[in-house]
């Protein structure tokens, strides 16, 4: 049940990292069950993390020592492979999850999970701490880029596909973080969260339910206190919600040092012994990511001796841990993945990463159809701190925990500059380039550079400026203000004053305020954090090799008021944030809306219709089905992809009266002049909401009333010119309006079923506990 960071027993030997074997032997004799992490979490003498051979050798030695101990139980090794196997040398670093959210393409999400799992397993590691399940909520939160979307339905669909891809490689996904971690009160990572039962069940729980439904093998807790109760001691979240309501049968692991935060941060106990006592007795946690020592074991032994902890509680957790090890076949393959070692960094994974990057790029502005750029170009100037820096395209969790800038450490990396020059290199074109401004401060690099930049811009028809955020991870991003450095606008304004047309490329993990930057640009591309292949993806979109099809995966605020940063699209109209619970209506200027995204093609929506304008609840599923039809036509002379977003506005009787909610999405390809009719089937559960209290099982309420169905996030059904995209229907249901969902006791067993796992797990658990 004790998980140890490998950094606690690595030695520096001639510039390399080596195992302290006597320490490993001690851990093996004590029954440590799991290890985690990479050898280099921060830059050290320009070393990057191990290659597959180094990982496999170290893990092989650890496994040998553990399986030769008296317990003879293999360890479970876990790694933060957040976007590709980002801690394994030569593995392709994929776009971050927020980019996957912009694709609205579940197939690409599945491929991202598949290659992340495969390349992690190639290092002998069968357990990945991901994906993150939280919808992107507070816009200052520094982990937004690890989220798949702002919308709970989109997160549910995309993460389910990702999990299926990963676990198809016999690698266990570990979904995180239980629960509501993405809406900290002050926007800072690890700050506490307040959320009603309605919000927990309807905004934050659906992705976890979807994960359980596809058989996710493990779940991770979180650092926060939820409604004043630390998650590490929260019976409501880990027992009532996760185990009972969602039916999760798999293994639950704490976050890094989470149990001990009960004393150090939350201050609800006065000793680490009491912290372990509180956590194990109040929650269903199975494994403690302690992670620097074996005090969790000694505390557990003492609690047993003092009869403060029941042996049956430990058997329950050990059984779930051993079940996971059996599912991963660790007794037969303690260092899995030998068959895929040579695949790391292969053409297939590069192609998948490139496709994900290409489909994630969002075209937000395109005045006078300045894009795509046409060849041959008379003149072009490239500038900005992200223009020739692969590290800034990858962000945090890239080679190191906090990421790193530069190009040299990214063997598969293609910067934006390189991607553009590759396209133009066919004609032998050379391009002027200057970094121009510093990423973190926004300061001009030098007076000479500033003067040169203005001369280059004056001579250029087009100037492409790539800028955004420095690299960071977790609370390492808390300190940054919401607005991008003012020096960025000063620099771009000076370039624009020369008469060049500015094309702005944003490389950022969260929506930093842009100030006057959009007004200075003729075109704006949101690139997010598109990974190692991101430079090529961006260049392909700029020059029309790829028609942009990304849709903005979150609301992009224009100001940093609390309500503007904390309000998702479904608590907004075009100009205001609306919170029915608090009776608030506040002005919320928005730079860009959720679902915004232009194309070089032109897609026309027509013939929106419903199969019925009036529905009444029936025991027959067919009679409850509402079919929504729409015709999409590409009226342009070029082919393209369109993400069709279907929204619904509920009646005001709903507890929070959301302005709209995404219910379905589909990405389609249409050739020039081609049209296609789409049909979407909806059931009462789709327009209902979870209404029971947590712990009472899941049940949905679908209030009677008028519902509005419409397409495209920017549609205003009160605007007469847009009403052709909207339809309404009346729904009625007799009695309480409560529709029971699947009985949690009949939910699929996470990770599938095993014929003899239960017996073996209990026997092994008893053996392990006897040693205690």
Molecular structure report:
The chain is an alpha/beta fold and 772 residues long. It folds into four domains: 2-343 and 748-771, TIM Barrel (Alpha-Beta Barrel), CATH 3.20.20; 361-552, Rossmann fold (3-Layer(aba) Sandwich); 555-593, no CATH class; 602-741, Sandwich (Immunoglobulin-like), CATH 2.60.40.10. The chain contains 22 helices and 33 strands. The strands form nine sheets. Strands 11-8-7-6-5-4-1-12 form an eight-stranded parallel beta sheet. It has a six-stranded mixed beta sheet with strand order 13-18-17-16-14-15. A hairpin with a 4-residue loop joins strand 20 (576-579) and strand 21. Helix 3 (97-103) runs antiparallel to helix 4, helix 4 runs parallel beside helix 5 (152-167) and helix 4 packs antiparallel against helix 12 (347-360). It is globular, with a radius of gyration of 26 Å. The model is unreliable at 741-762 (pLDDT under 50).
Question: How do you describe this structure in short?
Answer:
This protein is α/β, with parallel strands linked by helices and 772 residues long.
Break the fold down into its secondary structure elements and pairings.
Elements: E1 2-5, E2 10-13, E3 16-19, H1 21-30, E4 34-36, H2 52-67, E5 76-79, H3 97-103, H4 106-122, E6 127-128, H5 152-167, E7 172-175, H6 197-213, E8 218-220, E9 225-226, E10 229-230, H7 235-245, E11 251-253, H8 261-264, H9 272-282, E12 288-289, H10 295-305, H11 311-327, H12 347-360, E13 362-366, E14 380-383, H13 390-394, H14 416-424, E15 433-434, H15 447-459, E16 462-468, H16 486-496, E17 501-507, H17 517-520, E18 523-526, H18 534-542, E19 556-557, H19 562-566, E20 576-579, E21 584-587, E22 590-592, E23 603-610, E24 614-616, H20 621-624, E25 626-634, E26 640-649, E27 661-670, E28 675-682, H21 684-687, E29 689-690, E30 699-701, E31 705-711, E32 726-732, E33 738-740, H22 757-771
